[in-house]
Amino acid sequence: METITKQSPQGCNNICPTPPPLPGPAMNCRRKGSATKGNSCASTATRDLWDNLFDRGYRADVTIRTNDGGIIYAHAGVLGMASPVLRGMLKQAKGVGHKRLISIHGVQHDAVRVFIRFLYSSCYEQEEMKELVLPLLVLSHAFVVPQLKRICEQQLENSLLTLDNVVDVFQLSLLCDAPRLVLLTHRMILRNIKAVSATEGWIAMKRSHPALEKEILESMIYEEQERIRKLNERKIYLQLYEAMEALVHICREGCRTIGPCDKDLKDDQKPCTYEACKGIELLVRHFAGCKLRVPGGCIHCKRMWQLLELHSRLCADSGSCRVPLCRNFKDKIKKQFKKDEMKWKALAKKILSTKRIGGEPYFLSSKSISSY
Predict the structure, then answer these.
(1) Which range marks the domain in which residue 358 is found?
(2) What pTM was estimated for this model as a whole?
(3) Domain boundary residue among 118, 143, 168?
(4) Which of 16, 111, 204, 349 lies at 20 to 30 Å from 39 by C-alpha?
(5) Chain center to CA of 118
(6) Distance (Å, rounded) from C-alpha 194 to C-alpha 211?
(7) What's the structural domain count of the chain?
(8) Of 359, 352, 344, which Cα lies nearest the Cα of 305?
């Protein structure tokens, strides 16, 4: 190679040649114009080289037998590095000379070919993935190829999961240890149980795995019970919130024949719009005249004590609040045991989140409840 000096044409004025630009971000490689490829730091040319090595079988030293007498040629070094299971199979494989023979049965020949090709370049055709995603999921799990397994799960989750194949995917997800896919397919089955139960996949599962069908039906019953329980819980929290509103209304404005001592009630007062007002009014009257009153001595007074304490935890301004004992209960909160405090705080937060308010004039917001 000629040495560049000041006298040489290449070295005139001692100017170094401009270095080539740095390579840009890696692009997904393309094959036949329609392939979808996994991301890689390797250039497109390098990945095409690996694809060509597989397609042409140059100096292949492994023969793979598949279903229906199919043959695939591959290289032991590539297979052994890509899959620990294949590496173990190759150690035990027998063959003639340097050629080794292994068998992969149980799935169609095309699925094995796409799987082996993926081990070379991490490439796959989208049309092939759409057609062979289930056997590819099985192969990637059986031969411990986590990259391909993640791709299969993502493809199913994003676009390839349908009512016709959801039962098959559910069963394979259980066998292939894919918990997220199990959850997604299980939810899809429960949401569309009438349509799914008429598919061929459901009928086949009913014949081959009746216990699995029973578990799905039992889980559907459990989901319905949970839905009803949550609705009943929400109803209770809503009633408690309405009781808090009615209590503030009575103590601030007065209603019908009861109200603050400094406020005169009018005979022509409009009907009360608070549904819980009548019940709270009766409870307040009882509480004012009950001889027992202590918590535990009277069930009605005990309920009133609980409502007053609950109000104090929701109240936004105890200084100007007209509800009796509001400030007293606020002070009591500081001395309460941590376990009891957590229960009250959780109840207050659920009541506010059920009503979905963001800070009413008289009540805190659910975020404020979490912070105190």
Answers:
(1) 236-364
(2) 0.63
(3) 143
(4) 111
(5) 28
(6) 19
(7) 2
(8) 344
